[in-house]
Structures are given as structure tokens and as C-alpha cells.
Design a protein that fits this description.
single chain, alpha/beta, Rossmann fold, 6-stranded mixed β-sheet, 35% helix, 23% strand
């Protein structure tokens, strides 16, 4: 009944300025329940969670419809989108060019204190409240494991560290409902353990609370059924803009098991069909691909990346120490290490996004960085998929999907040239491959985070680059997209034209072709280990 529920939705719809996202919705959440909201990219899950957070409207469909929530506007959402928006905000506020030094921006301490009476982002130079000096003693800070990064600038944190900082701030905000959307994506084993313990602690309190209005309630949102905490009691699944399952966790697990059995029967045939279609598209679009990569494909020993005793850091924080590494053509690398170990920094030395490359001995494609090459000389040989790159593209989110794909041939963020008929035809072939057929004129900014990620991976692969940089490429992808993307990456590697540099924390995403492992081990000397991978690795 409505009066006994924390959230009650009957005969309602979810909509925003662009129209209706979910046409019909019935759901209720009672005290003591711990809900998982799940579903494929673009299926409605993200729309529902954003509606609960007040970012979209929940409206009755007619006089019988009703919506009530005991949380009112006391809701905080922690998501990949929220983390991306935070990095974008830090870039907007960056004043390095006026300071003649790197603007550290807001630290984790200052950011968290914004919900504890401290000044907001636009007044970040004002003094912090007294509580700032004892943040380390707060149980919420310890629970999220952020004690050691409180005085680091947000823009210098790893993806996992930013997510844990967001979680800590949300917990200290006093909001009654916390929505955690895909919280385990990109986290190392230690961070996942911290988050699972956090979830167990908070949900345990909400399940055991005799009150119908608990202090903190959590709703978990996931792209795929993976690492689901034991404390979850109920599951709400969305697909194609409507509820496809609503019930207990045990009943959902039975349904998942049945689906997996059916899928296993057709998996091999579907993969073969996908790979065949991909290879045909690559052949049809050769004219637009990176000619430089094909001309030297026979040079198996060509050095693509070479770093000699590289040191990178800022203030007293050292990220890479005496780091020496070489990547040769056809050597596909799996790059591992805990959050904050320097994986993203390493990749940014290659992409040119970290300017400390110029004070180190770094060679790309046989040429030392800082000897007159342009950024375009570098970009033409790279395909990039990363969290930071995703943030950059969200800033031009009004670009349509066709233009995003074509920009992959141009090495640009957004498209600033007239499209040719050949480019349009190629883009539509790639969009069809990725499951976006007929959606070429949709705005990139209107897609779910996972769909955006899938589009950016297609964009990175279209020109057959010498190096394909993949920094947690499967962030935000549901199981269907994830499998497609892994098949795509593996097929691209098999061409012999493109060499992979692949960062992931998920062992199931390591590809058979990745025979070389770079393990970053901060605090050790040396701070890295190079491993020849076996099937058991």
C-alpha cells in the first residue's frame, strides 16, 4: 500500500524535455528492502534512476496514477555520469594559464567539505570549515577508504579514487536516499572490497531498521549481473523502455540462468556472424583508414612506444618512477595495477595529454617526443577510448552519431568539415555493426553513458590505428554490448595492423591475444613488472 511504502509509483510515466522515456511504470519500495535496478544500455534503467534523483519527471498517466516518495528531494546519485561531470567542471574552473603553474583545483578535502558547510566550487579559495581538519577521523571517510587522497586534486585522482570520493561526499551529505549506479566499474580489487563492505554496512542498517523512514537507504544500479552484493533482496529490470522483471533476487537469478543457457546455444554462431560482418566493413572502408599502419604492417619489430627511466609526478606525489618500457608492433599489452598506480598517467604520456612527456625520454613511432612533431602527427596513429576522452566528447554532446564516427577518421573531437558520401556510407556501416542502425542523426549527448561508450569504441576503431589505447573500455556497458565490443577489439587485433594497449581490472575482459602484461606496483622498487602471459594468467 502507498502509506506503507518508502517509494510508491502507480500508473506513471518518466519524461524529460525530449519526451517520454518510460511510458508505463508501477513499482514500490518498502522499508527493509534492498533493490537492484538493472537492464541493457538504453533500456530505461538510467532514465528511471535519474527520475528518482529528480533529474527527470515522474508523472501520472491519468487520474488513477500516483507517485510519492518519503525521500522528497533528499536524494544523491553517484554514477559514471556524475564523475564525468565533476572532471568537466574542474576543467572549466582550471586557471593554470593565469597562474603560470598547474592549478591543482579542488582537493578531495575541499570537495567533501562542500556538503559540510564549506564554500562551493566557485568560491574554492575561501577558508574551509573547522571539520575539514578532522575528516580523517570520520567513519564515513574510513568506510570509503579516502583518507590518503583527501589532499590530492580531483583532477589528479584515478577514476576509482574519484568514485570513492563522490561516494564519501554523498554519504556525508545527509541525503536519505543514495543511488549508486554501476559503482564497481573500473575499481581495483581493494576498492571493490571497500565498496562491498560499505554496501553491506549501510544496507544491513536499512534492512534491520524498524523505522519506515531509515536514515540512509541505498538503491544499486548495475549494467550487468556481476558482483551483486549478498544483501540485495529485490530486482527491478528494464528493457526497451519498460519493466521486464520485478521480483525477488532468487527469482531473478533463476531467470538469468535460463537466459544464459539459451544464449550459450547461439553464442558461437552470433560471434562468427559479427566477426564476418566486421571484416567486410573494414575492407569496404579501407580507403578511409590509416594508410601508415598498413604500409609498415610487415615490420614486426617496429618500435611503437619506448620509454627510458621515465619519472612523472607532482608536488610530493610520484606516479611513475624510473619507468622503462617498450612496445613493438603486434605486441598486445594488458596493463594492470591498483587505482592510482599510474595506468592512466602512462597512457596520457602516449596520447600527449600529460605535458611531463617533454621532460622525459619518450619515443613514439621511432621519434623522440618534443623534437618538432605536432599533436596531429601523434593522433593520426592512435585510436583512444578512455574515461578522460569520454569526458572531452561529452562537452560536444550535441554532435550526432554519424558525425562522431566520421570524426574518428579526422582525429577530432566533434566534426568541423563537410561530410563526404563515402564517409557517410562508412559511418552508417559501423553504426549498424554496433546496433545503432537508423539512429545516425541522434544526438550523442542524449545517449546513455553505456551507449556513448560503445559509440566511442567504434569511433576509435574505424581508421585501423597503429595503436588502439583502451582504458577500461567496457565501463558502463551491459552484457550484450560488452561482448560485442570485446569481439570487435579481438578482431581488430587479428588484422595485424593495430596493436592494443588495454587497461582493465576485470580478468574476464583480458583477450587471448594480449600475451604481454605490464603490472604497475606502486611503492615497490622497481614499481612495475613485465610478465609473459600464459592461459592461466
Amino acid at each position: 500500500m502507498k502509506e506503507n511504502s518508502l517509494i510508491y509509483i502507480n500508473n506513471c510515466r518518466v519524461q524529460d524535455l525530449h519526451g517520454t522515456n518510460i511510458a508505463s511504470l508501477d513499482w514500490k519500495m518498502n522499508a527493509g528492502e534492498a533493490w537492484l535496478v538493472i537492464g541493457p544500455n538504453g533500456g530505461g534503467k538510467a532514465d528511471f534512476l535519474r527520475a528518482l534523483a529528480g533529474e527527470k519527471q515522474i508523472l501520472p498517466n491519468d487520474s488513477t496514477g500516483s507517485y510519492s516518495s518519503k525521500f522528497s528531494d533528499s536524494v544523491e546519485i553517484v554514477s559514471l555520469e556524475r564523475a564525468a561531470s565533476l572532471i568537466q567542471q574542474e576543467r572549466d574552473l582550471d586557471e593554470s594559464e593565469y597562474m603560470n603553474k598547474i592549478d591543482e583545483g579542488r582537493t578531495g578535502r575541499r570537495f567533501i567539505c562542500e556538503v559540510l558547510g564549506g564554500p562551493d566550487a566557485k568560491h574554492r579559495n575561501l577558508p574551509l570549515p573547522a571539520i575539514a581538519q578532522r575528516l580523517e577521523t570520520l567513519p564515513e571517510v574510513k568506510l570509503c577508504g579516502v583518507e590518503k587522497i583527501l589532499d590530492r586534486g580531483l583532477k589528479f585522482m584515478s577514476t576509482g579514487e574519484i568514485r570513492r570520493t563522490l561516494l564519501c561526499r554523498a554519504l556525508l551529505s545527509g541525503k536519505k536516499l543514495l543511488i549508486l549506479s554501476d559503482p564497481f566499474a573500473g575499481l581495483d580489487a581493494q576498492s571493490r572490497s571497500i565498496l562491498l563492505e560499505f554496501f553491506k554496512t549501510i544496507v544491513g542498517k536499512q534492512k534491520n531498521s524498524p523505522s519506515k523512514d531509515p536514515r540512509t537507504t541505498i538503491i544499486l544500479g548495475m549494467e550487468r549481473y556481476h558482483e551483486i552484493p549478498d544483501t540485495i533482496t529485490n530486482v527491478l529490470e528494464f528493457a526497451e523502455g519498460k519493466v521486464s522483471f520485478c521480483g525477488t533476487k532468487s527469482d531473478y537469478e533463476k531467470l538469468i540462468s535460463e537466459r544464459e543457457e539459451e544464449k550459450a546455444k547461439s553464442r558461437e554462431a552470433e560471434k562468427n556472424e559479427f566477426v564476418s560482418e566486421l571484416k567486410a566493413i573494414q575492407k569496404d572502408t579501407e580507403i578511409l583508414q590509416n594508410d601508415g599502419g598498413k604500409d609498415s604492417a610487415t615490420q614486426a619489430d617496429e618500435s611503437l612506444v619506448k620509454m627510458n627511466k621515465v619519472n612523472v609526478g607532482w608536488d610530493d606525489h610520484r606516479v611513475l618512477v624510473d619507468f622503462t618500457w617498450e612496445v613493438k608492433r603486434g605486441q598486445h599489452w594488458l596493463i594492470r595495477g591498483p587505482n592510482g598506480s599510474g595506468k592512466t598517467t602512462l597512457l596520457e604520456l602516449i596520447t600527449g595529454d600529460n605535458h611531463q612527456v617533454f621532460c622525459n625520454d619518450v619515443w613514439l613511432f621511432g621519434r623522440k617526443r618534443g623534437t618538432g612533431e605536432t599533436i596531429w602527427d601523434i593522433k593520426k596513429n592512435l585510436g583512444i577510448v578512455s574515461y578522460r576522452w569520454h569526458v572531452e566528447y561529452r562537452m560536444v554532446g550535441g554532435t550526432d552519431l554519424e558525425s562522431v564516427i566520421i570524426s574518428g577518421f579526422k582525429d577530432s573531437i566533434g566534426l568541423y568539415e563537410q561530410k563526404t558520401d563515402v564517409e557517410i556510407a562508412a559511418a552508417r556501416l559501423w553504426l549498424k555493426l554496433g546496433g545503432f542502425e537508423g539512429r545516425e542523426h541522434e544526438s550523442f549527448g542524449n545517449l546513455s553513458y553505456g551507449e556513448q561508450r560503445a559509440i566511442l569504441i567504434l569511433r576509435a576503431a574505424v581508421k585501423a590505428p597503429k595503436i588502439l589505447i583502451l582504458d577500461e573500455p567496457c565501463h558502463g556497458l551491459d552484457e550484450s554490448y560488452r561482448q560485442k565490443i570485446l569481439d570487435l577489439i579481438e578482431t581488430v587485433a587479428e588484422t595485424g595492423t593495430t596493436t592494443l594497449l588495454h587497461v582493465t581490472h576485470d580478468p574476464s575482459e583480458a583477450l587471448p591475444c594480449e600475451k604481454h602484461i605490464l603490472e604497475l606496483e606502486p611503492g615497490k622498487s622497481p614499481m612495475y613488472e613485465i610478465i609473459a602471459r600464459t592461459e592461466a594468467s
